[in-house]
Specification:
The protein is built from 19 helices and 24 strands. The protein is an alpha/beta fold. The strands form seven sheets. An eight-stranded parallel beta sheet has the order 13-12-11-5-2-1-17-16. Strands 18-19-20-24-22 form a five-stranded antiparallel beta sheet. A three-stranded antiparallel beta sheet has the order 7-9-8, with no helix packed on it. Strand 18 and strand 19 form a beta hairpin. The longest helix is centred in the middle third of the chain and has 17 residues. It starts with a helix and ends with a strand. Bound molecules: 1-deoxynojirimycin. The site of 1-deoxynojirimycin (NOJ) has 9 residues, from loops.
């Protein structure tokens, strides 16, 4: 496929993310399942999305909600059967919706037979993992920290060795230098391709390339990450995986979740010439409310930083022919609407504005379940209501660092991953129309925010439909270049999308107060049309100065 075709393909697609545990419970056990998703296919079709990324529903002890896989080839009975999955794929396919599966290859569960065989002394499988002796002084093989808190090493059975786990101790890191591990990964992908899967998301893939000789870091978190992030072998092994599996089908779409990556690496991962991935998820724009880079200390979002990050990434990826995923939300983030907007007064306008700002950028939009009805964070009052392993660890670690129990709770409340994992709110029922039983995680605001109410008299879902349709019909959005506008403006995020002789501009006010702006002179008195407005604005040309209403979003195309 030539470059233009690849971009058009990616640029016209919109991907929806389903967190299966929380989408719809068909069998009344309080946990979402595959049959539940099948029951809601009409809802998904009505949003006009092209593909669905499903968080993992493979066999797993669920210590990290499915990111601890014990069998990559089977569906966990918690979610259904292989027959259910096949039915889901085929019912989606007839409606032109593809399936994207989550491939967790940096680590597997310690319950996986590979790890169990390694523990039993099988040398072949011991080579699948990073198993190392303690240092001469008896301390751990390196001083690395787990991303979920505590050391990154755990005792390897009753030997005197340790195994590496960058995440939970039940998630053992796989050694990608071992060609057998790489072959296993390709086989798994090819197995699911045969079942009709046409999309793959690669979990934290840029940390697979640890060096074979592991060394201590200087103790600084950023420097430590550099020891195992974005190393050259990640590109090498990705290219190899591409050739051995998904890259054999030009229709397949892939996205790599890239933790703390760089623009240069992201271009390398996604430039079609390199045959690595279609696109990457990056997270820098979602760290603008971290105080000194610390997720658990929340400050008001730094808007200038946000703009600068989005613009720099967008413009440089465009220049380097890279491609990225466009998103505010996923299962690891608190709801963006709660984070960036005044939801008490302007939930609808805020949701519409955020969607416009991100979805019309250059890339492929991802919508996380519930975003299209303006779901917000739950309002929990006790740490016991949280389920997530990272949140629970953080609560204890913060107290060890000197936080009071109350402050540790507030920190978790702001940033917990459970904020986005609450059940999809279908109705105003006490279990949100998600289940007939008490769900695994509690909803608190389904009485006012739910699908039934939204479809009856809401303005968010319709707005999402319009945005998605616009992307499909407007080449400026699917294929156009990007240029930042009003870089220094303190309230407005604005950009131009242009291609050949045509151009449109997107203006969004990120604040709950009016924002006045002066447009660059080249746009003045140029006739055109409003493609989208969340305040029903009608304009035939742009005036020299405009005052945007709270969270206003305006898309104007020049004739
Ligand atoms: C990223 C996933 O999105 C997250 O949910 C998970 O905990 C980690 N990777 C570890 O697999």
């Amino acid at each position: 496929m030539n470059k233009e075709k690849i971009l058009t393909k990616l640029g016209k697609k919109v991907i929806y993310q389903i967190y299966p545990k929380s989408f719809y419970d068909s069998d009344g056990d309080g946990i979402g399942d595959i049959r539940g998703i099948i029951e809601k296919i009409d809802y998904l079709i009505s949003l006009h999305i092209d593909m669905i990324w499903f968080n993992p529903f493979f066999i797993s002890p669920q210590n990290d909600n499915g990111y601890d896989i014990a069998d990559y080839y089977n569906i966990d009975p918690l979610f259904g059967t292989m027959a259910d999955f096949e039915e889901l794929v085929s019912k989606l396919r007839v409606n032109h919706i593809g399936v994207m599966l989550d491939m967790v290859f940096n680590h597997c569960s310690t319950s996986h037979p590979w790890f169990q065989k390694a523990l039993a002394g099988n040398e072949k499988y011991q080579k699948y993992f990073y198993i190392r002796p303690a240092k001469k002084d008896g301390t751990l093989p390196t001083n690395w920290k787990s991303k979920f808190g505590g050391p990154a090493w755990a005792k390897f059975g009753n030997t005197d060795k340790f195994y590496l786990h960058l995440y939970d101790p039940t998630q053992a890191d796989l050694d990608w230098h071992n060609p057998d591990v790489r072959k296993e990964a390709a086989n798994i992908i090819n197995f699911w391709r045969k079942k009709g899967v046409t999309g793959f998301r690669f979990d934290v893939f840029n940390v697979i390339g640890k060096s074979e000789i592991l060394t201590d870091s200087n103790g600084d978190e950023k420097d430590e990450k550099k020891l195992y992030t974005d190393t050259p072998v990640v590109h090498k092994y990705l290219h190899e995986l591409n050739r051995a599996s998904f890259g054999q089908d030009s229709e397949v779409i892939t996205v790599g979740e890239m933790s703390s990556t760089t623009i240069a690496n992201s271009i390398e991962y996604t430039n079609p010439n390199n045959q690595e991935l279609s696109m990457v998820f990056t997270f820098h724009h979602l760290k603008v409310d971290y105080k000194n880079g610390d997720k658990w200390q929340t400050i008001p979002p730094d808007f200038s930083k946000l703009k600068n990050l989005l613009f720099t990434w967008q413009e440089q990826l465009d220049e380097g022919n890279g491609w990225n995923a466009l998103f505010w939300n996923n299962h690891d983030q608190p709801r963006a609407l709660s984070r960036f907007c005044n939801t008490r007064k302007y939930r609808t306008q805020g949701a519409q504005m955020l969607a416009t700002a991100i979805q019309l950028l250059r890339g492929t939009p991802f919508i996380y379940q519930g975003e299209e009805i303006g779901m917000i964070d739950p309002d929990y009052s006790s740490i016991d209501e949280y389920v997530d392993i990272e949140s629970k660890n953080a609560y204890h670690i913060l107290q060890k660092k000197g936080f009071s129990a109350h402050d540790a709770f507030l920190a978790v409340k702001q940033k917990s991953r459970d904020n986005s994992r609450t059940p999809m709110q279908w109705t105003d029922d006490k279990y949100a129309g998600f289940s007939t039983q008490k769900p695994w995680l509690t909803s608190t605001n389904q009485y006012t925010i739910n699908v039934a109410a939204e479809l009856k008299h809401g303005e968010i879902f319709k707005f999402y439909q319009n945005l998605i349709t616009l992307r499909k019909n407007e080449p400026l959005i699917s294929d156009g270049h990007i240029k930042a506008l009003l870089r220094e403006d303190k309230h407005v995020f604005a950009y131009s999308r242009y291609l050949d002789d045509s151009e449109l501009i997107v203006l969004t006010n990120f604040y709950d107060e009016p924002a006045s702006l002066e447009l660059p002179s080249q746009y003045l008195q140029c006739p055109g049309t409003v493609l989208l407005s969340n305040y029903q604005r009608i304009l035939k040309e742009l005036p020299s100065s405009i005052t945007l209403k709270p969270y206003e979003a305006l898309v104007f195309k020049f004739n």
